[in-house]
Amino acid sequence: ITWTREAGWHDAEVLPYGPIPMDPASSVLHYGQEIFEGLKAYRRADGSIVTFRPEANARRLNQSATRLALPEIPEDLFVQAVHELVTADRDWVPSGFDQSLYLRPFMIADESFLGVRAAQRARFMVIASPAGPYFSGGVKPVSIWLSQTLARAGHGGTGAAKCGGNYAASLAPQNEAAENGCQQVLFTDTATEDTIDELGGMNMFLVRADGTLLTPKLNGNILDGITRRSLIQLAKDRGHSVEERAVTVSEWRAGVADGSIIEAFACGTAAVITPIGQLKSTDFTIDFGDKAPGELTMSLREELTGIQTGAREDRHNWLDVIVAA
Ligand code: PMP
């Protein structure tokens, strides 16, 4: 779908996957005006195909668009584009546990203009690929690396937007994590270097021994994760209290040491919920040892994946049925 300032969104089409024409002076190639989303289509046991809260992805894309000076797209047009692609690719939607068709809606600025100002032309596209589990080897605790020198986002920056530039900034810290034997990087607030923001591609939760969940509040640096929102709701439904506030690495370390923090997990569309087994930095290690994965982590995971696959009741009407049984 193409957007121009004069004509708005127009010329929607479904095309076979392949290269797209791109002018070398396209704004996205020079000033990085690019935003994206990620969601999954699941084939349920009864054969129907569903996605999970696609309108939330549409809303978040539009928030990213506003921050990156890109045009907003009407929510129903976004959802329609997802529907049309999934319907065209229905035979590619795998069935089975942890299997899905991953959908990547994205928007680029493609005005041919070498000047630093918001582009007057944009394109919105959705591509798809069958996907298995995010981490190979099933649900097992991940190790995360605390990056103490490299930041991904700063106050007033684009941290809350889902834009390519954030991920470009996260790649060197992600390499640092891998060099230290960790699968994910933990980003902290740039100002204090102690307040937890999020992981490279996931939000984070801690679980206290009294059943309270702690998660960093949306502070402008972190992504408003749809899995995060859904888990806050599911935990509250079960009577847990959820504190959305500043959470620090010091609090995490002290809580593990005195037994008041008993679980930690990361969450996102790709990995759903992943127990955190270890936090490493140059100075210290927090290790949950054989206590990870925790009980609440796994039961929230089971509930959320159960809703997505149809095994659990969809009380909040989160599923969007694209192909009926
Ligand atoms: N934070 C970051 C940086 C991410 O890339 C993602 C994945 N989209 C998340 C959090 C989790 O968001 P969601 O639950 O909407 O996938």
TrEMBL record:
Similarity comment text for this entry: Belongs to the class-IV pyridoxal-phosphate-dependent aminotransferase family.
Molecular function via GO: branched-chain-amino-acid transaminase activity
Keyword Translocase: no
UniProt keywords, alphabetically: Amino-acid biosynthesis, Aminotransferase, Branched-chain amino acid biosynthesis, Pyridoxal phosphate, Transferase
Organism: Leucobacter exalbidus
Origin superkingdom: Bacteria
Annotated NCBIfam families: ilvE_II (TIGR01123), PRK13357.1 (NF009897)
EC code(s) of this entry: 2.6.1.42
Name recorded for this polypeptide: Branched-chain-amino-acid aminotransferase
Amino-acid biosynthesis in keyword set: yes
InterPro entries assigned: Aminotrans_IV (IPR001544), Aminotrans_IV_CS (IPR018300), Aminotransferase-like (IPR036038), B_amino_transII (IPR005786), BCAT-like_C (IPR043132), BCAT-like_N (IPR043131), BCAT_family (IPR033939)
Segments crossing the lipid bilayer: none
Lineage: Bacteria, Bacillati, Actinomycetota, Actinomycetes, Micrococcales
The reaction(s) this protein catalyses: L-leucine + 2-oxoglutarate = 4-methyl-2-oxopentanoate + L-glutamate; L-isoleucine + 2-oxoglutarate = (S)-3-methyl-2-oxopentanoate + L-glutamate; L-valine + 2-oxoglutarate = 3-methyl-2-oxobutanoate + L-glutamate
